[in-house]
Design goal:
Strand content: 5-15%
CATH class of the largest domain: Alpha Beta
CATH superfamily of the largest domain: Glycogen Phosphorylase B
CATH architecture of the largest domain: 3-Layer(aba) Sandwich
Distance between the termini: 57 Å
Number of helices: 19
Largest sheet: 7 strands, parallel
CATH topology of the largest domain: Rossmann fold
Helix content: 40-55%
Strand order of the largest sheet: 3-2-1-6-7-8-9
Radius of gyration: 27 Å
Number of strands: 15
């Protein structure tokens, strides 16, 4: 565990900052069914079989009539004559990691401050501290970091919130929020929920990432998916409302998890700054810098180079295109574990992370956007690419809401290399089609103005606050009664029932232990391979004539071969099992087996009944004390 506490300057004056600072975007890094019994096991159905949203047309529609903006607009009621000052506590676990989620939060911060409100950011110490004040210091803005957090070993720079210390609770009480906004749930969220319920503060959330699905791409950790889904649904059950980015995500949560039985599920879309991302940023200097001919189409990928972004599909498509006699270049913006894979592909330029003007130029100076990720909840990078005038080749469910198939791009079948290859090839071979699709992408992106969408959340804050006061009498317990049904509160009606903290500690430490064990086994394998290679070199040198030049030449060639072998070990994305080594492969196979998954699901059923019982027991103890106190007061009166 890491310990660090830091805060941005905070003063009590209520200055109003109406100057709007430009938000520069960076590359974007970010549920299935809840299993109530063992017979519901089906880990293969990770996507809804629903009609494709790409069949809907956005042509001729205003911003308000687009499905993306069907945000169930509420009419704020004027329950009080004097408008209350807006004070928002935002819990963003990885605030200093620049990705699509945190960029959205920073845009929201600016809008809150510009409206005269106050904002308190609570986060773990993940990422770089240099990113804390990308939103300039402001007297109405506070940033506070958790004392305790745990590194997520398979996500570089990301951390998991673990506790909420007494000092942090005092900081929150001093801020006195009028609404609490959770951007991602973790163990700390359960503490924040308890605080909100104790202080009777409205509580809501936004849904940004399909975090449980990430574990389907992590060898040895697929069993974490049902565990996290159960935990997340339990926590969401105490939210007054969660806002999801698209109708598809809303339908998925309702269909697979019956989330509408646990909380209100509404839509809050995303937007783009069409001034920052525009075809006007296209430059010949970008092409000259990277030796790209003027008439050579450029295929662009933007994002973290990790398995869940399906970099394997992108790599396979580029390799297949390289076998054809086609003039093209591929440009990859981003970084991650698959850096070596990307750098080894012919006709591919790896730029690493870009932001600001460099990122805008990379978008606008490209010709096709290929993004096969299947875990996006919205696809901020897809929208930025569309605003930059690129035809889109994306996964149908995750980014398909931004594509009208055959008009501004192609919405491809999930996981189908052929589908992505055919869409990309069709655009490469037809310059007129690229131009037509580019024009349509620009038209679509202009309907999604960033400022209007961010301001919607301020109205949602007001509506959530008014509903909490008018409909629930400023008591979370009254809201619980509305959502009490057979599909809700599956782990009990207490956010942190007895034993919950211990269970979470076991879960986190098990995950950390598995990560540590995999690293140790990988290190042992690499050391063993190095030892064998050195023995081979010595054997070959000893067989040569005693000529120093010959010996040096052999050592150099064998050293180059060793380096080449290390790079080639990661070339085939998605085939890690063949190179993991016997011990690692046995461990991964065991953890990913159906038998182990059944054990996990069995444990979940036991925990569900245990937590429900402990929650009921706690309620009965509190109820007994209340009744005892009432009887005592009545006897005293008599």
């Amino acid at each position: 565990m890491k310990r660090r506490t830091s805060a941005a300057p905070h003063r009590d004056s209520k200055l109003r900052d109406t100057a709007k600072n430009e938000v520069t975007s960076s590359t974007s890094p970010p549920s299935g069914q809840i299993f109530s019994n063992l017979n519901e096991l089906d880990m293969t159905s990770t996507h809804l079989k629903t009609p494709s949203l790409t069949e809907s047309s956005y042509s001729g529609l205003s911003e308000e009539s687009l499905p993306l903006f069907a945000t169930d607009e509420e009419s704020p009621s004027n329950s009080s004559d004097e408008k209350q000052e807006l004070r928002v506590l935002i819990y963003a676990p990885c605030y200093n990691v620049i990705d699509g989620v945190t960029l959205t939060i920073r845009k929201l911060e600016r809008e809150i401050l510009a409206s005269g409100g106050r904002v308190f950011i609570l986060s773990t110490d993940s990422g770089s501290s240099n990113n804390t004040n990308l939103v300039p210091c402001h007297p109405n803005r506070t940033v506070h970091f958790l004392d305790n957090s745990v590194d997520i070993f398979f996500l570089e720079n990301y951390s998991l919130g673990y506790t909420l210390s007494q000092h942090q609770e005092e900081q929150i009480k001093e801020f006195n929020p009028t609404v609490i906004h959770i951007t991602a749930v973790d163990i700390t969220t359960s503490h924040i929920i308890s605080y909100a319920r104790n202080m009777q503060v409205p509580l809501m959330g936004t849904y940004h990432s399909n975090i449980p699905d990430y574990f389907l791409f992590q060898p040895g950790l697929t069993w974490m998916k049902p565990m996290l889904e159960s935990l997340f649904r339990h926590l969401y059950n105490f939210f007054q409302c969660i806002y999801v980015p698209t109708p598809y995500i809303r339908g998925s949560l309702i269909e697979q998890q019956k989330m509408d039985r646990a909380t209100d599920v509404k839509i809050w879309g995303r937007g783009v700054d069409t001034n920052s991302f525009s075809p006007s940023h296209r430059t010949q200097q970008f092409r000259r810098t990277h030796n790209i001919p003027d008439n050579c189409p450029v295929i662009l990928f933007v994002g973290r180079l990790v398995p869940e972004k399906r970099i394997d599909i992108f790599v396979d498509v580029i390799r297949r295109l390289n076998t054809k006699n086609i003039n093209f270049r591929a440009v990859v913006v981003g970084a991650g574990p698959s850096d070596g894979v990307v750098q080894s592909i012919k006709n591919t330029i790896h730029l690493g992370w870009l932001d600001g003007q460099n990122l805008r130029e990379a978008y606008a100076s490209s010709d096709i956007f290929l993004f096969p990720s299947s875990v996006e909840t919205f696809g901020n990078v897809t929208l930025e690419a569309a605003a930059s005038g690129l035809p889109l080749v994306v996964e149908a469910h995750c980014s398909g809401h931004l594509v009208k198939d055959g008009v501004n791009g192609y919405a491809c079948e999930t996981g189908s290399v052929d589908s992505f290859y055919e869409g990309t090839l069709a655009l490469l071979l037809d310059a007129n089609k690229r131009k037509s699709y580019s024009d349509q992408s620009i038209i679509m992106s202009k309907t999604m103005d960033e400022t209007k969408i961010v301001r919607q959340m301020l109205r949602h804050y007001e509506c959530i606050t008014n509903e909490f006061e008018d409909s629930y009498g400023r008591k979370h317990q009254n809201r619980d009664k509305k959502f009490k049904n057979q599909d809700s509160f599956l782990l009990g009606m207490d956010p942190r029932p007895l034993g919950f903290g211990t269970t979470c500690a076991i879960l986190v430490n098990t995950m950390l232990f598995i990560g540590w064990l995999l690293k140790v086994l990988k290190w042992c394998k690499e050391k063993h391979a190095m030892l064998l290679s050195h023995c081979r070199i010595k054997r070959k040198v000893s067989l040569l004539p005693t000529t120093s030049e010959n010996q040096e030449d052999v050592v150099r060639k064998e050293g180059d071969a060793l380096i080449s072998h290390k790079v080639d070990g990661d070339k085939d994305v998605g085939k890690e099992g063949k190179r993991r080594g016997l011990l690692i492969d046995m461990l991964v196979r065991c953890l990913d087996s159906r038998f182990f998954l059944r054990i996990v699901l069995f444990i979940l059923v036991i925990l569900r009944h245990f937590f429900c019982f402990m929650s009921w027991l706690k309620f009965m103890c509190i109820y007994g004390r209340i009744c005892k106190g009432r009887n005592k007061s009545l006897r005293q009166k008599n």
